């Protein structure tokens, strides 16, 4: 599964109609929708589709045709996201009607193509379920630990400076197993 961290945009034209696709992380969906409705007051449709993981690791999906004939825009857009195995992401397609009716097949192709185009220009990352862990070390070991975590691309969430240093990290289960093999003996997993 893949996800993205930034917003991307692309424009697709079909028989004088413009389909501007905005692809974003799911948590920005509501803000971007509001912004787009303000920026594009003359647009005819704001079609969307999104997929995200809930707290039970289940994929939640939703889409809207926003006035287009039923099943011709939202569902095809969602199908593209699903087919590309994209999660925690949303796409909004702003349509400006060009005066020529595309028919149901034409709409399905146009919306699918616009979503595919924006995915193709996007920077996607491989999704991995993250866990938190705490490492305990002496002050003298902190720089070695930070260097090791940086080499392994493990995120340090916070550091607590007590009698010893507690380093809170976020990583996948596999990364944790690999890290435990590389940790010096005096750095302890709590």
From TrEMBL:
InterPro entries assigned to the protein according to its UniProt record, in alphabetical order: EFG_III/V (IPR035647), Impact (IPR023582), Impact_N (IPR001498), Impact_N_sf (IPR036956), Impact_YigZ-like (IPR015796), Ribosomal_Su5_D2-typ_SF (IPR020568), UPF0029_Impact_C (IPR015269)
Family classification: Belongs to the IMPACT family.
Origin superkingdom: Bacteria
The species this protein was found in: Poseidonibacter ostreae
Domain UPF0029: 135-178
PANTHER family linked to this entry: IMPACT FAMILY MEMBER YIGZ, IMPACT-RELATED
Impact N-terminal domain boundaries: 15-119
Protein name according to UniProt: YigZ family protein
């Amino acid at each position: 599964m893949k996800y993205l961290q930034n917003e991307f945009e692309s424009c697709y034209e079909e028989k004088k109609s413009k389909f501007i696709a905005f692809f974003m992380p799911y948590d920005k969906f509501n803000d971007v929708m509001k912004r787009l409705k303000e920026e594009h007051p003359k647009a005819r449709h704001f079609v969307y589709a999104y997929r995200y993981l809930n707290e039970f690791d289940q994929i939640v999906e939703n889409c809207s045709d926003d006035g287009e004939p039923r099943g011709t825009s939202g569902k095809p857009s969602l199908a593209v996201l699903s087919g590309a195995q994209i999660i925690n992401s949303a796409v909004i397609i702003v349509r400006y009607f060009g005066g020529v009716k595309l028919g149901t097949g034409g709409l399905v192709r146009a919306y699918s193509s616009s979503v595919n185009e924006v995915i193709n220009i996007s920077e996607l990352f491989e999704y991995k379920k993250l866990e938190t862990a705490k490492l305990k070390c002496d002050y003298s070991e902190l720089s070695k630990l930070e260097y090791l975590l940086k080499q392994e691309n493990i995120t340090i969430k916070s550091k607590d400076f007590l009698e010893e240093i507690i380093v809170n990290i976020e990583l996948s289960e596999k990364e944790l197993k690999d890290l435990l093999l590389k940790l010096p003996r005096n750095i302890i997993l709590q």
